[in-house]
Design a protein that fits this description.
Number of strands: 0
Radius of gyration: 20 Å
Keywords: Membrane, Transmembrane, Transmembrane helix
Oligomer: single chain
Low-confidence stretches: none
Transmembrane segments: 116-146, 166-191, 203-221, 252-275
Shape: globular
Length: 282
Amino acid sequence: MVGRMFRTIFWNMLAIVRLRYVIFTLAFFLFLGFVSAREASERAVLDTGSDRTTVWDALFVAFAGPGLRDTSLVRMLGWFLPHLIVCAMVGDKVWRDLSQHNPVFVVRVGLRLHWWLAQVISVVLATIAYTVLAMAVVLTIAGSTLEWSHPFDTSLVVTEALERPLYANAANITLWMTLLLMTTFCTFTIWQTTLSLITRLPTVITGALALILAFSWILGIDRKSLVPWLPGSQSMILRHDLFAPDVAGFSLVWSLVYNGIAILAAVFIGLFYTINMDFLGE
């Protein structure tokens, strides 16, 4: 049974990796890396008068998300589009299984519990790979114009002019930022998978999740009390109390727990539906 699950995960991963999405993802993050490297250099010079910008500053600019009172549509899109891309790429996998194959296919995979867990594991692995690829592309592009340095010996120049300057090394900030991004991406892709399974309308679900992200950005601009509760805010490290002292209690640990609970809820809802679903009658 375990071997069958691993085979299912393997074939799921192959099905998720579609050429058009890979090309679009690479193109987007190539562009994001170029823009972030330039913005990091300009911001460092204007805000601190420093030209010590490294690739880690560019990575922070690319993935830190918009901060409080940040109404820049450009920065919003830099945060918003990576979420939307991964939902579109990963989230309709279960729906495609049910729409392109005979429903008996699902039963043949084995126990429904194993089938659903294989889908969830596939989505999580694909989302992790997507996050790693996105960061690797941005670092590679930024490295063509900015200095590479050891992250444990480097502070982020672009954080020195923030409301709450942070002089921790780049490795610590990058680790936290990666965890926030990865878990938030997983939250949205697993909810996309679960709701697509239930409704059989993955495009509509993607649109609904996009609206949730957009409203989370808008509502969080000047409503500090709502920020910790808004889905998607967890990947905006600049809105956490680490950088935004006005948002009391919105810690990095809070976001990880929030995402963990949201993921477990989606997994159990999907499991309940899978166990009780009439595959052959629908």
